[in-house]
Amino acid sequence: MITFDRGVSAKASVLGVDAKLVAVNGDTAVLSVAGQEVSVPVGQTRSTSGVGVTVQQVTEDKVVVRVSSGISDGK
User: Fold this and answer.
1) What is the tens place of the pLDDT at every residue in 4-56?
2) Which residues pair with residue 51 across a beta bridge?
3) What is the model's pLDDT at position 16?
4) Which domain, by its residues, includes 23?
5) Residues 62/4, Cβ–Cβ less than 8 Å
6) Which of 38, 45, 62, 69 has the most crowded CB, counting CB atoms within 10 A?
7) 26 assigned to some structural domain
8) CB under 8 Å, gap of 24 or more: what pairs does 2-5 form?
9) Cα(63)–Cα(24) distance, integer angstroms
């Protein structure tokens, strides 16, 4: 899980993928993931660059995001 502080140049690397908070429009976070821009509403998941990106929370101070590899163990 990644917590981005709003109002700063927030970025992180997870699962070998760079993720950056670009903007927030209401309850939708705009993220750059591995160089691809993706808009993700709170509570939803979008796939980009081989990873799943889920926005769990947007507040006036922070954005909480989960990045998953999309790799399944078959269970």
Assistant:
1) 998 888 889 987 889 999 999 999 999 999 899 999 999 999 998 889 999 99
2) 48
3) 84
4) 2-68
5) yes
6) 38
7) yes
8) 2/64, 2/65, 2/66, 2/67, 3/62, 3/63, 3/64, 3/65, 4/62, 4/63, 4/64, 4/65, 5/61, 5/62
9) 9
Residue whose tokens read 């926005």: 55
Residue type, 41: P
Say if CB 31 and CB 22 are below 8 A apart. yes
Q: Which residue has the tokens 């993706």?
A: 38
With respect to residue 16, please indicate whether it lies within any of the assigned structural domains.
yes
